[in-house]
Design a protein that fits this description.
The complex is a heterodimer.
Chain A: H1 16-20, H2 40-56, E1 74-79, H3 86-98, E2 109-112, E3 118-123, H4 128-137, E4 140-146, H5 153-164, E5 169-175, H6 183-200, E6 207-209, H7 220-232, E7 245-248, E8 251-254, H8 258-263, E9 270-280, E10 288-291, E11 295-305, H9 314-322, E12 330-331, E13 340-342, E14 347-349, H10 366-375, H11 381-387, H12 389-394, H13 404-410, H14 412-429, H15 436-457, H16 460-476, H17 485-491, H18 500-511, H19 528-536, H20 541-546, H21 554-566, H22 574-579, H23 585-589, H24 591-596, H25 611-618, H26 629-633, H27 638-643, H28 657-675, H29 686-709, H30 712-715, H31 719-737, H32 743-750, E15 757-765, H33 767-771, E16 780-783, E17 791-800, E18 814-818, E19 821-825, E20 828-833, E21 837-841, E22 850-857, E23 864-868, E24 880-890, E25 895-908, E26 912-916, H34 922-927, E27 932-935, E28 940-946, E29 954-958, E30 968-976, E31 982-984, H35 1002-1009, H36 1038-1043, H37 1061-1064, H38 1071-1145
Chain B: E1 7-11, H1 16-26, E2 29-33, H2 46-58, E3 59-60, E4 63-66, E5 73-76, E6 79-80, E7 82-88, H3 95-105, E8 111-119, H4 129-141, E9 150-155, E10 164-170, E11 180-181, E12 187-197, H5 202-215, E13 222-227, E14 239-248, E15 253-259, H6 266-283, H7 292-300, E16 306-311, H8 316-329, E17 334-337, E18 348-353
Parallel strand pairs in B: 1-2, 7-8, 11-16, 12-13
Antiparallel strand pairs in B: 2-5, 3-6, 4-5, 8-10, 9-10, 12-14, 14-15, 16-18, 17-18
Helix pairs in contact in B: 1-3, 1-8, 5-6, 7-8
The chains are: A alpha+beta, B alpha+beta.
Organism (chain B): Hygrophoropsis aurantiaca
Keywords (chain B): Transferase
Protein name (chain B): RNA 3'-terminal phosphate cyclase/enolpyruvate transferase
Chain lengths: ~1150, ~375
């Protein structure tokens, strides 16, 4: 088909066309008239179309809270049914980005894909719990579909989950296309699958085709193309993720003391640290987090770590070119990169060859090199301890030298010895340091403890002086260890600058202090003392008072100490006074009081004059401060009155506002000084100030001019652009506001920013999470908003999924995936009944939304959710049972169901009847006085009053006379509350994670237990026996009858007694007539006989025919059987060959 | 109700209102103990109990437990329901005491507030109804809470007998706007309300004259109204007061107020108010000293953006408020001098990163 050659076009060589060619309009180039509309109407239509097309580009402007400069890696999830080739794709993609092959991929894998982009790949297994969690965090989904098989149920389930949690970008990938041999079949399959895919996602959604597997990977060109698509993918912020901080944990560590675990036989609650990139919004340390599959957990601490997989900057690029062996970064702590696998409580080093030295043909990962390095130990432990621990590592191979950052810090004299050569190596290795991290971590913690002991011994004043002089040496051995030169640079605010030392100096000078004692080769480390300082603050109060948390350099600290001892600072440091001192607010405001004594504790002395208490008693929680007349006396002074004139518009207006005050102070400085308690304004350079004033003036004039003379239409933006501009301005402000501050203080004010690599320590984690840890299940840490920690009744708009086979019933448990959580709850369905009441529904309506109300953790209104009846993997049918959106949160609900109270009359007057059996007491009746009642026949009435005699009987009036046989009923509404049932899906705690089972239905329990359904006698259906009603005949009294007019008289007649003429006459036939009748009879008899004989004959013929047909049938069946047998034999051989082939390829085939 | 929310613990009776408000807004339970435990008359005062009752009325699902001695309370907050509520305030405090916390809650309710409070409308301790109407509500407008925001003074009530009535209407919002208010501007106009109930109506004119004698020197745009309430509307006790506010070109509002005292002439009252206004103006900043708390609260409740506001030095209440915010929301402010180049200026720049607080109570249905 493809190599068919079409006839090529041959331009005319002669004739009319050939003559025309080369002349005419074509020569003149672009003809602008060609695209101009001919008619006005057409022009209008064209214009309208353009405008409409322009509108399609508009979207609701959304704020993107992810920082542009260092965004977190994009989460690319690979999803699909088992056996579709997910792992192969993941390996191929990692190979493409990181140039290395992973043997076993577990958990997230982070790679650098470009200047500004990193990718975290994660494979999603076939468990629906994983699919839900992945759907909530993935930015891009590579949805794999087996081309040779078609769509599977999981794919559709996953798409529906995505839809209800904010749709991330989806790229479809068709694999196994090589299994389709016929070309026509292939293109038809592609077309059909594409069509279906497009209806699921959107028209024109990207669908990729992957042909067969080469060397265990997909073809490189196809992967290259796919990676290009991934790299240009743009992401629109999703509302939920843009308002919640979250983290996809790429590493889990159990920090519980081994001894505690041993004593409790592994059953104690664990302390767990999770590592990962922060995403979404800023994470504050006060937020509670939810780990889907585990539960709500309080965070114990958050620590920013150095980025293990940093974006390339100019520096690293330079280094990358220099070293040849340099590999691209890949961060996958759960996988086996570099021969190192991080298990939950151990680090495994995988060695392909043996530990033989000099085995250079096999590539040696860092792990192996480290182990071999350990083999090289020449001296005993004692020796090494005696000398230095550096010596041990010093003799090891180069790759381990990253560690010498901490080494340096702990032992500064060895730093000198090791010389500059090591430094260089260090720099080269900067990018590869992600693994050393962990080891350092533990070391760091240990050392930290030691340091604390040391510290507590030292007298605080001594310590301060020591810190001032040689503080770096003291502090160096601590958390510094955990960090390496490269990551720290990322912690610093201005990462664009090349030299981190310079940066730091910058930020320092911003605060207003110089750092004279930083040796130049200590890049980055200077940050660490902050950390120590923060640790110390809660412990000793003395220091808190003077040492501000945010100005936490040691030299700064020393300076602060000095200042506080010598003289009170001119300007208060409000942040530290408010947030990190124990002073009462009064003491802060009145400085003098603060200096006296902060001894306000109640347990101070045994005998204690409670003057303070009495003073407090006066305090009435007032908003207005008491106006002291004395203070206001000063305003009687004319000079003072004049002094604030500049704050009014009548003050000197010529000078721009900001410099105004200065001007005033200069002119009238003397007066001002008197009043403001001996303050002298700083002598500024008058020349620079006047220049400044002049510039400001010019600027103002220019603005004025622009305002007057510029075209207002020109500068006016439409609403959309205005909003976008506003968002951008705010984002810029956000970025600029906290730029100068160091990271710790910044975290205090704005939380931890998305994009940073953090370690979150969680306390009281159920031990099963660690015991049953499985890296193939994603662990997500989702931050909760304050409102989301609470419980309440949630009203949602819900619709049963049209692919879900059964209807949903009120009070049946349903598993919701709402917000970060997955939980089981018991909903009550309801519909709005004419806006009067919320009426309970027993079942969800078909093809319609209804309301559902259930008890559970609150989610913000407008959050989407999906619901499941079971999360079990064995369910063959579609599992998403409903989808919907949260409407309302409340602490009580008003759902009612109808109740009919029935009664019967026991005495009937004209339109009044006494009714019994509806209520039990007069009190109940009193409650319903005036209520409407109705008979079954439709006579309406009203309850009047309770009767004395039978309890609960009452008098009622009706619009007509009721019968004794009537049933009277009262329609009322009974309010119901959803059950307070909340059962979180703790799938991650199970050893078999896909087998989480929640509350069972009653029927299910009965089935499982083999119980019979209890039968209520009253609920039996029996045939209704209705006695036939007899009505007495109407008797009109004779007297009345006589008085009636004829028309109204009952016209009753007796039945006729005598026979009529027709009945009593006799008929006698004439002889001819007799003959004729006899003849007719004979003819009929003959005809009958004839017919019966004919029928018999016909029957005989048919019998013969039937026999013949039967014979044929038997023959035909035999033939058929033969044929089928043949076919099956061939098919059997074929399928056997197929399975053989598959086993050869070691391919897993999923269930039918 | 299985509350998983954490508990915040405080001692002492001080700052009770703001703690209750923060608790309801943040959803964290609050426990306050040692309430006047050393006092001769220990426990909660009548107005505090009344406030707790009012809070129970305007919320749904709130659980308030008061210890037997009345020296400890535990509040498990529910949701802010709003709607139409009326409340009789005790005569020990003015309606301002009750209105201030409710103004903080009202924008985040489920239904728009229609609150009727009866009692004393003006007194020495709390913001008077006039100030709330003319100053507090405009401060809310900075945060995009404006349509239908209203305080109606139906009747005035002076202490000690009261008899006043105010109606507070407040719309609900989804999220408050982020504030960026750093330009104090210049005072361009001064307004004031002088009222006198059950006394000689000339009193208010005397106050106006006295006040103008000081203020006239600054700007011509001064209007001091004399607000007359007669008969039933004037409450049960005699009294008079002057409240003045100064508005700047960037609509910064400074205000002050003085209330009648026995044995003090109206002129002196007026001068007190005027001088207090001048010292308030001198204090500088973009927000009045009495409204620092309200503005700071709304700033942290904004979207997750940086809000900035220039203010004078924080008052005692504000400092405690900042600390309370930290314990309830975990948010701290960055506080730096507004003009670092100028050591004489005491104005501060408060900036914070909003909590991204969204009105969860608002229903979509």
């Amino acid at each position: 088909m493809d190599n068919q050659i079409h006839k090529t076009h041959r331009p005319a060589q002669s004739g009319n066309k050939a003559e025309k060619k080369g002349k005419g309009k074509q020569q003149q180039g672009f003809n602008e008239k060609a695209f101009a509309p001919k008619s006005g109407r057409r022009a209008e239509r064209q214009g309208r179309r353009n405008v409409e097309r322009d509108q399609t580009r508009l979207h609701v402007p959304l704020v993107n809270r992810t920082p542009d400069d260092a965004p977190p890696p994009v989460i690319v999830a690979i999803v699909g049914p088992p056996g579709v080739g997910k792992t192969t794709l993941l390996k191929s993609l990692i190979r493409r980005y990181a140039k290395q092959t992973l043997h076993e991929v577990k958990g997230p894998v982070t790679v650098v894909s470009g200047k500004k982009r990193r990718l975290t790949f994660i494979e999603c297994n076939n468990d629906i719990n994983s699919m839900i969690d992945i759907g909530k965090v993935a930015d891009l989904v590579l949805l794999m579909i087996d081309g040779s098989y078609g769509f599977e149920m999981e794919t559709f389930e996953f798409l529906n989950i995505l839809q209800s949690h904010g749709f991330p970008k989806v790229i479809g990938i068709l694999s196994h296309l090589d299994l389709i041999k016929k070309k026509a079949m292939l293109s038809a399959t592609k077309k059909a699958l594409k069509k279906r895919f497009w209806t699921e996602i959107y028209q024109g959604a990207k669908l990729f085709y992957l042909s067969g597997v080469l060397n265990g990977r997909y073809p490189d060109t196809e992967i290259l193309n796919l990676s290009r698509f991934i790299s240009v993918m743009k992401f629109r912020p999703l509302v939920f993720r843009n308002s919640h901080p979250y983290l996809l944990a790429d590493r889990v560590e159990d920090l519980t003391p081994r001894e505690t675990v041993r004593i409790s036989k592994g059953k104690c609650d664990r302390t767990v640290t999770l590592y990962g990139y922060l995403r979404g919004t800023n994470l504050r340390s006060s937020t509670k987090v939810h780990v889907p599959g585990v539960g709500d957990i309080d965070m114990k601490s958050i620590t920013i770590l150095g980025d293990p997989c940093p974006l390339p900057d100019a520096d690293s690029e330079k280094r990358r070119k220099l070293s040849e062996k340099k590999k691209l970064l890949v961060h996958a702590p759960m996988s086996d990169i570099g021969g190192v696998v991080y298990d939950k409580d151990a680090v495994w080093i995988n060695v392909p060859g043996s530990f033989t030295r000099g085995n250079t043909d096999v590539y040696q990962g860092e792990g192996e090199q480290m182990v071999m390095g350990l083999q090289d130990v020449g001296a005993t432990l004692e020796d090494t301890v005696a000398q230095s621990k550096i010596r041990l590592f010093g003799s090891s191979s180069n790759h381990l030298t990253v560690d010498n950052v901490p080494k340096r810090t702990s032992e500064s004299q060895i730093l000198e010895e090791s010389g500059s050569e090591e430094d260089e190596e260090d720099e080269d290795d900067g990018a590869d340091q992600d693994f050393e991290f962990d080891d350092e971590d533990h070391e760091g913690i240990d050392e930290e403890d030691e340091e604390f002991d040391l510290r507590s011994d030292v007298n605080s004043s001594d310590e301060r002086s020591e810190e001032a002089t040689g503080g770096h040496r003291l502090d160096g051995g601590r958390p510094t260890v955990r960090r390496i030169s490269r990551p720290t640079r990322d912690l610093l605010p201005k990462s664009t600058q090349h030299n981190s030392i310079v940066e730091y100096a910058d930020s320092d000078s911003d605060i207003g202090y110089s750092d004279q004692d930083h040796p130049d080769n200590w890049e980055g480390q200077v940050v660490y003392p902050d950390n120590d300082h923060v640790h110390n603050i809660p412990s000793d109060d003395e220091e808190d008072e003077e040492a501000p948390t945010w100005k936490n350099d040691l030299s700064v600290k020393a300076l602060a100490t000095f200042q506080s001892h010598s003289k009170r600072k001119a300007r208060k440091d409000w942040i530290s006074l408010i947030y990190s001192s124990n002073l009462t607010p009064e003491q802060i405001v009145n400085e003098n009081a603060a200096n006296e004594s902060p001894a306000n504790d109640p347990v101070d002395d045994f005998f204690h004059i409670r003057t303070a208490v009495f003073a407090n008693d006066d305090d009435l929680d007032m908003t207005k401060e008491a106006i002291s007349q004395d203070a206001l006396k000063e305003w009687e002074d004319d000079v003072l009155l004049e002094s604030i004139r500049n704050l009014f518009i009548t003050g000197e207006r010529v000078v721009p506002e900001d410099s105004h005050k200065n001007e005033y102070e200069d002119s009238e400085g003397g007066d001002y000084e008197d009043l403001e308690a001996g303050f002298d304004p700083p002598a500024e350079d008058p020349r620079s100030k006047s220049a400044e004033v002049l510039a400001a003036k010019k600027e103002m004039l220019k603005r004025k001019f622009d305002e007057q003379y510029d075209d207002p239409e020109d500068t006016k933006m439409d609403f959309y652009d205005e909003k976008k501009d506003e968002i951008n301005r705010q984002l810029q402000l956000n970025r600029a506001e906290f730029d100068g501050i160091d990271s710790e203080a910044r975290a205090l004010v704005e939380g931890y920013r998305p994009g940073s690599y953090v370690r979150i320590e969680l306390d009281n984690v159920p031990c099963e999470m660690i015991e049953n840890f499985d890296a193939s299940y994603p662990i997500i840490v989702g931050g909760l908003l304050p409102a989301e920690e609470r419980f309440g009744y949630i009203q949602v708009r819900i619709k049963r999924h049209r692919w879900f086979a059964r209807t949903l019933k009120t009070n049946d448990p349903l598993i919701f995936s709402l917000g970060w959580r997955r939980f089981q709850s018991v909903p009550i369905y309801s519909l709005d009944d004419h806006s009067i009441r919320m009426r309970m529904l027993k079942y969800t309506p078909e093809h319609m939304h209804c309301y559902a109300t259930f008890y559970g953790p609150v989610a913000l209104p407008n959050t989407g959710f999906c619901a499941f009846n079971s999360l079990n993997g064995e369910t063959a049918a579609f599992r998403v049972s409903a989808t919907g959106v949260v409407l309302d949160i409340d602490r009580s609900v008003q759902i009612v169901k109808k109740i009919k109270l029935t009664g019967v009359p026991f005495k009937i007057f004209k339109n009044t009847a006494f009714i019994k059996d509806m209520f039990n007491s007069a009190l109940e009746v009193a409650k319903f006085e005036g209520a409407n009642v109705k008979t079954v026949s439709g006579i309406r009435g009203q309850i009047k009053k309770a009767l004395a005699k039978p309890d609960g009987a009452f008098r009622a009036t009706f619009e007509d006379k009721v019968l004794m046989s009537d049933i009277i009923f009262l329609r009322a509404w009974y309010s119901i509350q959803p059950r307070k049932f909340y059962n979180p899906v703790t799938s991650l705690l199970l050893s078999d994670k896909s087998r989480w089972a929640g509350m069972r239905l009653t029927g299910q329990i009965r089935r499982d237990e083999g119980l019979k359904t209890p039968l209520n006698v009253n609920s039996h259906y029996k045939p209704v026996e209705r006695a036939a009603r007899r009505f007495n005949s109407l008797k009109v009294p004779k007297k009345l009858q006589a008085a009636l007019p004829y028309a109204s008289k009952p016209k009753l007649m007796k039945p006729q007694g005598k026979q009529t003429y027709m009945q009593k006459r006799a008929v006698v036939l004439e002889p001819e007539e007799k003959k004729a009748i006899a003849l007719l009879q004979q003819i009929r008899a003959l005809r009958k006989d004839q017919l019966s004989r004919r029928k018999e004959k016909q029957h005989e013929r048919k019998e013969v025919h039937r026999k013949k047909v039967e014979k044929d049938e038997v023959k035909k069946n035999e033939k058929d059987k033969e044929k089928r047998k043949d076919y099956m034999r061939v098919a059997g051989i074929k399928s056997k060959r197929d399975t053989d082939l598959e086993e050869g390829n070691s391919r897993k085939r999923r269930r039918t | 109700m299985a509350q998983t929310g954490s508990l915040v613990h405080f001692h002492g009776h001080q700052y009770l209102r703001q703690r209750l408000v923060l608790s309801i807004l943040s959803g964290k339970s609050v426990r306050v103990d040692k309430i006047r435990s050393d006092d001769k008359n220990p426990g909660l005062r009548d107005y505090e109990i009344s406030l707790l009752r009012l809070l129970e009325k305007v919320t749904n699902g709130t659980v308030i437990e008061i210890s037997v001695t009345g020296t400890a309370i535990l509040l498990k907050p529910g949701i802010i329901a709003g709607g139409s509520v009326s409340h009789d305030c005790p005569l020990s405090r003015s309606v301002g005491y009750f209105l201030e916390p409710l103004i903080m809650l009202a924008p985040f309710a489920k239904k728009p507030f229609q609150l009727t409070l009866r009692g004393i409308t003006t007194d020495d301790n709390d913001l008077s109804a006039d100030l709330i109407r003319t100053v507090t509500l405009p401060h809310l407008q900075l945060f995009g809470i404006s349509d239908g925001l209203e305080l109606r003074i139906k009747k005035r009530g002076a202490p000690p007998e009261g008899g006043g009535e105010v109606q507070f209407l407040c719309p609900i919002v989804k999220q408050v706007k982020t504030l960026n208010f750093v330009e104090p501007g210049k005072i361009k106009r001064i307004r004031g309300i002088a009222h006198a109930v059950r006394v000689n109506p000339q009193f208010s004119n005397r106050m106006i004259d006295a006040s103008r004698s000081v203020l006239n020197r600054y700007i011509p745009d001064i209007y001091l109204y004399s607000d007359v309430y007669k008969g039933e509307e004037s409450g049960k006790s005699p009294g008079y007061a002057l409240s003045i506010l100064a508005e700047s070109t960037t609509s910064v509002i400074h205000c002050s107020e003085a209330v009648s005292k026995p044995g003090v002439t109206p002129e002196e009252i007026a001068l007190t108010a005027t001088h207090a206004l001048l010292s308030e103006i001198r204090q500088g900043g973009c927000v009045d000293r009495k409204h620092q708390n309200l503005v700071l609260l709304m700033m942290i409740l904004g979207s997750e953006d940086v809000g900035r506001c220039r203010m004078g030095e924080p008052s005692v209440r504000t400092i405690q408020f900042l600390r309370d915010i930290k314990s309830f929301f975990g948010i701290s402010f960055k506080i730096v001098p507004a003009e670092p180049s100028e050591p004489s200026s005491t104005e501060l720049l408060f900036s914070c990163y909003g909590a991204g607080y969204i009105n969860v109570n608002r229903s979509l249905a």
